[in-house]
Amino acid sequence: MTGSDDRVEVWIGDGPVEVGRNSVMHALFEGAAPKPAARRMRWSLGMPADLIWMLVPESRPLLAELAAGQFEAAVELGRELYPVDDTEAVLKFWARLAEPALKGFPDTRADAERYCAFIRLVWDFECPEQERVRQVLGWYVLEDIASTPVLWTVEVVDPALFQLIRDEYGEDFDLSPDRGDRTAP
Predict the structure, then answer these.
(1) Which helix (DSSP H) or strand (DSSP E) does residue 136 occupy?
(2) pLDDT digits (tens, 9 = 90+) for 18-33
(3) Contacts of 170 (CB under 8 A, 6+ apart)
(4) Which of 85, 136, 88, 95 is nearest to 115 (CA)?
(5) Nearest to 98 by CA among 82, 83, 112, 78
């Protein structure tokens, strides 16, 4: 059981977010870093795109493409700017970065480990949009992992993510080692 002393406030995206003390998020956004207001993204892409932008630097060109599309649509349609579509942001991260790293294992082990840890972080990230973020992450990343051979790479590189998938999708997908697609990663 955690108490209020186990939570701290950090600035991410549009404002303060409560995170666990000594968590990865706390370590990234507190401590020796500048004051919270200086780290706040002034142009929020929306969640989870803000997290992807801030914590996966190699994703920035991909997200910039999506943001450019929002600018073009706003000009063309004469409307205000909208945040980057959460589904598109997650799909870009998954299809262009995380999935190739898992498929390239063991040569891409460091990236696979980092992306899996990031997926867990986003899943546990507390924000007003948490339900929607989990829905998108579940549909487009976790279910894809659960239904393809990359599941066995996840089991090796991030047992905690493997367990999360087992807990969330174990009844919906065959996650047994003898399902026929298991190869030694």
Answers:
(1) helix 130-137
(2) 777 766 666 565 543 3
(3) none
(4) 95
(5) 112
